[in-house]
């Protein structure tokens, strides 16, 4: 009994450890794992990680092995004579200085190489994207195409994406675990990062630097598309105008604040081949419903328009809220906070301070009915 309880006490630390292993085994997918690289930069970092782990494992096995061997082989017995003293032995001192130094070199060389590779200007013709961190959402601009979007970064597979990053307010950190490590973004200072996506898909990213109360709800998505699809997406984004999305009423709309957001001249957006057909498919049929028209009116009356643009092409810069040109088609709203369902979108519009306390969007006293109309209106912006 006494022995049993002592053994139990000694092994009690095993219980939480086993529980942890079991719990960890239950997790099915790891959307933000850094151990499954999907691009060149992530692979450089992953290789470096494994190089370090291999050396560390070797050191651990040799040192612990020697220690355990010595403990059992040279264990002192009562009455043993004093063992020979090696303190100050020059040869031994040299050996155990040189070996760690060599190991450090074996880790330092690939580390420095990787740092240089990471900071190299991407070769070829990279696609430049400007990234701007805001409390608490991400703005993405494609200067090459004069497009602006938010929280969902569309990229073509196989092309290097060169990010020029900054922040609107405080320090954030852009982290795209499957493609690249973290990189801080600052106000008034540009940082850079590059990555390439090898496979089409949707990937998650996250702000990785504490930036205020809703730091945890500052996520984003990367949608990697085959080049032809990406071109189609660009053409479609360029074709989004207030008219095509919301019907002809937009012409008669005048607001005093940030009117540019809704009064974009749709002629400014050249219609790429196929784009007109795309937007025709997406918008006008819905655009005619009275609910959508009411939603559009509310978008102006409630002041949404003061902070959000509804066009991606040639969008006004410096607006306080995310660009909503294709909000109807995004998978998440409120920077990764909620899946983009009608219910969630309505709830978010009515109670932003409840969903994401401290966010700049105020509760605007939107009724349930009004929220439905706004959702219907926003759904036409895809
Ligand atoms: Cu932005 Cu944390």
Description:
- This protein has 382 residues and is of the alpha+beta class.
- Helices cover 40% and strands 17% of the residues.
- The chain is built from twelve helices and twelve strands.
- The strands form three sheets. The protein has a five-stranded mixed beta sheet. It has a five-stranded mixed beta sheet with strand order 4-10-9-6-7. A two-stranded antiparallel ribbon has the order 11-12.
- Helix 9 (290-301) crosses helix 12 (368-379).
- The longest helix has 34 residues, at 40-73.
- Dinuclear copper ion binds at residues 133, 136, 172, 207, 209-211, 215, 218.
Task: List key phrases describing it.
alpha+beta; 17% strand; five-stranded mixed sheet; binds dinuclear copper ion; 40% helix
In round numbers, the mean pLDDT is: 84
Number of helices: 12
Element string (H = helix, E = strand): HHHHEEEEEEEEEEHHHHHEEHHH
* Rg computed from alpha carbons, rounded to a whole number of angstroms: 29 Å
Pick out the low-confidence regions: 244-287
Helix/sheet category: alpha+beta
Strand order of the largest sheet: 3-2-1-5-8
Annotation, overall tally of beta strands? 12
Largest sheet: 5 strands, mixed
Distance between the termini: 71 Å
Report helical residue fraction. 40-55%
Our estimate of the beta-strand percent is 15-25%
Gross morphology: elongated
What are the bound molecules?
dinuclear copper ion
């Amino acid at each position: 009994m006494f022995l049993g309880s002592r053994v139990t006490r000694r092994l009690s630390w095993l219980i939480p450890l086993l529980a942890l292993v079991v719990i960890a085994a239950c997790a099915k997918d790891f959307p933000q794992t850094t151990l499954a690289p999907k691009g060149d930069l992530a692979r450089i970092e992953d290789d470096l990680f494994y190089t370090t782990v291999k050396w560390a494992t070797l050191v651990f096995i040799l040192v612990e092995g020697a220690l355990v061997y010595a403990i059992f082989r040279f264990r002192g017995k009562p009455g043993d004579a004093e063992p020979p003293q090696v303190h100050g032995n020059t040869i031994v001192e040299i050996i155990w200085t040189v070996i760690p130094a060599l190991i450090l070199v074996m880790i330092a060389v690939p580390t420095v190489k990787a740092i240089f590779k990471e900071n190299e200007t991407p070769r070829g013709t990279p696609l430049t994207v400007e990234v701007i961190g805001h409390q608490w959402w991400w703005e993405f601009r494609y200067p090459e195409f004069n497009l602006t979007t938010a929280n969902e970064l569309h990229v073509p597979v196989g092309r290097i994406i060169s990010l020029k990053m900054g922040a609107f307010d405080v320090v954030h950190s852009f982290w795209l675990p499957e493609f690249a490590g973290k990189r801080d973004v600052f106000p008034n200072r540009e940082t850079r990062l590059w990555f390439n996506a090898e496979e089409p898909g949707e990937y998650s990213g996250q702000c990785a630097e504490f930036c205020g109360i809703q730091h945890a709800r500052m996520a984003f998505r990367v949608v990697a598309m085959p080049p032809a699809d990406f071109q189609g997406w660009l053409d479609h984004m360029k074709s989004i105008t207030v008219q095509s999305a919301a019907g002809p009423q937009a012409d008669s709309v005048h607001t005093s604040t940030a009117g540019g957001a809704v009064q974009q001249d749709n002629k400014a957006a050249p219609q790429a081949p196929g784009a007109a057909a795309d937007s025709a498919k997406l918008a006008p049929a819905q655009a005619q419903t009275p609910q959508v028209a009411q939603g559009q009116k509310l978008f102006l009356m409630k002041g949404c328009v003061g902070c959000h643009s509804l066009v991606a092409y040639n969008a006004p810069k410096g607006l306080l809220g995310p660009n909503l040109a294709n909000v109807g088609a995004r998978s998440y709203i409120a920077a990764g906070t909620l899946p983009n369902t009608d219910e969630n979108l309505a709830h978010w519009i009515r109670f932003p301070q409840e969903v994401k306390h401290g966010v700049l969007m105020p509760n605007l006293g939107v009724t349930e009915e009004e929220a439905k109309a706004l959702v219907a209106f926003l759904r036409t912006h895809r």
